[in-house]
Amino acid sequence: xxxxxxxxxxxxxxxxxxxxxxxxxxxxxxxxxxxxxxxxxxxxxxxxxxxxxxxxxxxxxxxxxxxxxxxxxxxxxxxxxxxxxxxxxxxxxxxxxxxxxxxxxxxxxxxxxxxxxxxxxxxxxxxxxxxxxxxxxxxxxxxxxxxxxxxxxxxxxxxxxxxxxxxxxxxxxxxxxxxxxxxxxxxxxxxxx
Length: 193
Ligand code: MN
Prior knowledge:
By secondary structure, the chain is mainly beta. 10% of the residues lie in helices and 37% in strands. It has one domain (8-16, 33-192). It has helices at 8-12, 126-132, 175-178, 189-192; strands at residues 35-42, 46-54, 57-63, 74-84, 92-94, 102-114, 134-140, 145-152, 158-163. It has an eight-stranded antiparallel barrel. A hairpin with a 2-residue loop joins strand 2 and strand 3 (57-63). It is globular, with a radius of gyration of 16 Å.
């Protein structure tokens, strides 16, 4: 068996002569505080890519409707290939005819805390919570704050992204509508295009 990297799928889908997306690289050092990023991606269909740093890569889900602060909303999150950590800083254009061709915006970025506990109140490691399909994290972003759960369903690759009840829950206008622009550059999709 050849050595496999968790980023082999990422690499296999892309031609780095043609796209300026980050190369498949796993740094030896992890971030002191693990990061999350949500990228707004205007590809064949507009969606939001939700990514969490786990074991040196960004575990990734495509969320067609985007994250919501309303605990009543269960947002479909389709698991996609692991991305390199550097991808959290990627904002720009993926050329047409390349995988994911379109505009990518860093819609929100920050750190997170793993809050998943077992029934005795002992912390479950984030990589184990991921394998079990029961992630609970506290996000500290510019737009997303508070506790979120990512729960695997019985359908392959289909998870649900749900705002857990806390003081950051909000049943008003969707955060994706209220704050449509980049959290790092302030640009709109059109500006980036
Ligand atoms: Mn995408």
